[in-house]
Amino acid sequence: MSARLLFTDLHPPPADMRAEIIAGLSRLRKQLPPKYFYDRRGSQLFDAITELPEYYPTRTEIGILERHGGEMADLVGREALLVEPGSGSSYKIRLLLQALKPAVYMPVDISREHLLESVASLAESFDELEIHAVCADYSAPFALPLGVNGGARAAFFPGSSIGNFDPDRGRQFLERIGNLLGTGSRLLIGVDLIKDASMLNAAYNDARGVTADFNTNLLRRVNRELDADFDLEAFRHEAYYNSSEKRIEMHLVSIADQQVSLGGKRFSFRAGESIHTENSYKYSVDGFHALAGEAGYQAERVWTDADDLFSVHCLRFGSG
Ligand code: AVJ
Fold it and tell me: Fewest beta carbons less than 10 Å away: which of 4, 208, 237, 259?
């Protein structure tokens, strides 16, 4: 038998990158949305980050998925409709497919080309898998092309991507996924844990400077795509754990007083002034359970590694 592949294009409107970047740079405290990190080069740099010795989350989560995939499948249920928002290269789901045996795997991603390449390769590796790929922007409300599937429904959201949202937005996102899949659906979600600040700081300040490159690449992209003239040498990477907000903050700090032009507009920077480029929130197991509870989920099970660096949760949406 061979995999069955279906594709639905919900035609996500192209983001208005220019308007969003100008709005971010016009604020009193300048900021840029982290979603723009991921052009081709940015995606390659992120892949390189996940292999750095200091960046523990990816390999730790993979270890948890490999070790407990069977139990995860017992809780989520086989023959489920399995939705993955922001599936990207669909790498981590490979670790669970053997155990989960979903009726349908439904990856949802905004990048049409990346999605099509990824599902083609997945279909080659998993002979009997039914794949229904959906091109959509999962960060905006969307309806899934759900057929008359009476079976279990589940979502997979690995990588601590939830950490890019502030807790309020994170709660809204969790709630939206729950409402999309319905009462009784499960959510398998990877969440990075609060830990020693020195280890967190090292993970975002690697010795080889790959994270610095990843951060600075945002300016390179803005230069290329929005006709700007950021001097990449005139901004330095800064990342630190903000313990009162429980988040890693990434910034690009201007090393001098300078002006930058972007499509005819000018932006002034004072020496030391920063552009806030990313937040990566960290949670305790209890803290994440509280957030999930506010979003309407019950905690069913949590798996962590032996050093309590990372957690994977199974949550059930709705009461009873
Ligand atoms: C993809 C958002 C989970 O926050 O750790 C890695 C992104 N930024 N190094 C993270 C990131 C800098 C990553 N997430």
Answer: 259
